[in-house]
Write a structure and sequence with these properties.
single chain; alpha/beta; 2 domains; six-stranded parallel beta sheet; about 15% strand; binds nicotinamide-adenine-dinucleotide; binds uridine-5'-diphosphate-glucose; NAD binding
Length: about 425
């Protein structure tokens, strides 16, 4: 099939390359000329495991191309996927200006019947709004569908190629059939396609993210309680996770959730609920607990030094909001770094992928080290914020030698407190004894 994917970010690139890999002819388009130039040169603007190989293979085979000609790609396509950003607006709602701009371009370039599907996370009612915007200019019939994306960064290619479910929300039977046909090869082993109306599909996306985020906030809140009661949240996590009704995933206490999705999507669903006079109390608590949790590591470090951080050097391992990505949007490490700098500390940091993005924000205000041990050299304490593999079993003997004081803050509970205390470290985790 001929597809246009508008927006070549984390979602658009993975979706475009994934659709091409299943034999479709895909044009990935973006307003950012710089991104498109990079992609045309064979470079991938983001770090996402496996994506470079998928893009290279499909561009070489002629199924995937990149362009800034959004209108041209729309005219050539049978299905147009909208995968542009929907960031948080000042009032907390989802900013739909990019989605609406694409809608206008689609309306003006509708040369034959097309299905317009939103992959972007959009509030309930956006399909109706798009139908109006496109219809205002359209001279041809078209159908609108909600096709939310559930991939997670760091594992995006796998999530896209082997989806748990494909949600197709449309009131138009032709659109449902065309999208089902497109996705059938992705779910060959078992049919995981769910057909529904557009509003239910739009709400499903927010419901999934709100549920996942609320699990994390619940565990982070329990971690605070565990500390006060002398219990260990890691043992509690394993204990409750053994119940298959609860399950083991998304129960890790930590420095609070970040990323480009949970924070803005919680805010957007609260805004939507408010607009119809409903208060989603659990989501509101989830947000509040997360704001507190994101400040927790900084207050633990500050308390260790009796509030006197001026002149201290703090090493930070892990800057991306999670491992296997270079994405630092809403990353807890940034909240920590801001607090440390504000208190007069010097920050020495390391991340395997996110340092260029961090450098773009902080410039020379923090020291970025090419090596993880270089970042720890001479520091008064080391804080691990993101659980990259290489941080999980470091050479603690070497750390003891190079740190100026043997002080460790384990923001992800990846280390063994007893072992480290036995080696003479002062160890602080999240919700641990
Ligand atoms: N990142 C994720 O893990 C993820 C997962 C599922 C859903 N989503 C949702 O998908 C959407 C995109 O997220 P992302 O992380 O890929 O964003 P992103 O910021 O990485 O990419 C968005 C792209 O859209 C382009 N763009 C903006 N306006 C445009 C326009 N008018 N025409 C063409 N291109 C335009 C931007 O230049 C940018 O390259 C969001 O709604 C997000 O909530 C994201
Ligand atoms: O037990 C856990 C699991 C995750 N996190 C944190 O939660 C955040 C989000 O992680 P994750 O969900 O793995 O990454 P995202 O790429 O943000 O993916 C989420 O957001 C996407 C965008 O909407 C959805 O498509 C995905 O299904 C959804 O998992 C990160 O800061 C993690 O460190 C925890 O603190 N504890």
């Amino acid at each position: 099939m001929q597809l246009a994917v508008v927006g070549t970010g984390y979602v658009g690139l993975v979706a475009g390359a994934g659709f091409a890999d299943f034999g479709n002819d895909v044009a990935c388009v973006d307003v950012s000329a710089a991104k498109i130039e990079m992609l045309k040169r064979g470079e991938v603007p983001i770090y996402e495991p496996g994506l470079d190989v998928l893009i290279a293979k499909n561009t070489r085979d002629g199924r995937l191309r990149f362009s800034t000609d959004v209108a041209g790609a729309i005219r050539d396509a049978e299905i147009v996927f909208i995968a542009v950003g929907t960031p948080q607006a000042d009032d907390g709602s989802a900013d739909l200006s990019a989605v609406e701009a694409v809608g206008e371009t689609i309306g003006k370039n509708l040369n034959n019947f097309k299905v317009i599907a939103t992959k972007s996370t959009v509030p309930v009612g956006t399909a109706d709004r798009l139908r109006q915007i496109i219809g205002a200019n359209a001279t041809q019939p078209f159908a609108v569908a909600s096709n939310p994306e559930f991939l997670k960064e760091g594992d995006a290619v796998n999530d896209f190629m082997k989806p748990d479910r494909v949600i197709i929300g449309s009131d138009d039977p032709k659109a449902r059939e065309i999208l089902r046909h497109l996705y059938n090869p992705f779910v060959r082993a078992s049919d995981r396609i769910q057909l529904m109306d557009a509003r239910s599909a739009e709400l499903t996306k927010y419901a999934a993210n709100a549920l996942l985020a609320s699990r994390i906030s619940f565990m982070n809140d329990l971690a605070v309680l565990a500390e006060k009661l002398g219990a260990d949240i890691e043992l509690v996590r394993k204990g409750v996770g053994a119940d298959p009704r609860i399950g083991t995933k998304f129960l890790f206490a930590g420095p609070g959730f970040g990323g480009s999705c949970f924070p803005k999507d919680l805010s957007a669903i609260l805004y939507t609920a408010g607009s119809v006079g409903h208060d989603l109390e659990i989501v509101r608590a989830t947000e509040r607990i997360n704001a507190r949790q994101k400040r927790l590591l900084a207050s633990k470090v500050s308390a260790h030094f009796d509030g006197a951080l001026k002149g201290k050097t703090i090493a930070v391992w892990g800057l991306a909001f999670k491992p296997q990505t270079d994405d630092i949007r809403e990353a807890p490490a940034l909240t920590l770094i801001d607090a440390l700098l504000e208190a007069g500390a010097t920050v020495q940091a390391h991340d395997p992928q996110a340092m260029p993005n961090v450098r773009a924000i902080y410039g020379s205000r923090i020291l970025l080290s090419d090596g993880m041990y270089g970042a720890a050299e001479g520091a008064d304490a080391l804080v691990v914020v993101t659980e990259w593999h290489e941080y999980r079993r470091p050479d603690f003997h070497r750390l003891k030698r190079i740190l100026s004081a043997p002080t460790l803050f384990d923001g992800r509970n990846i280390w063994e407190p007893d072992e480290l205390r036995g080696m003479g470290f002062v160890y602080t985790g999240i919700g641990r004894k």
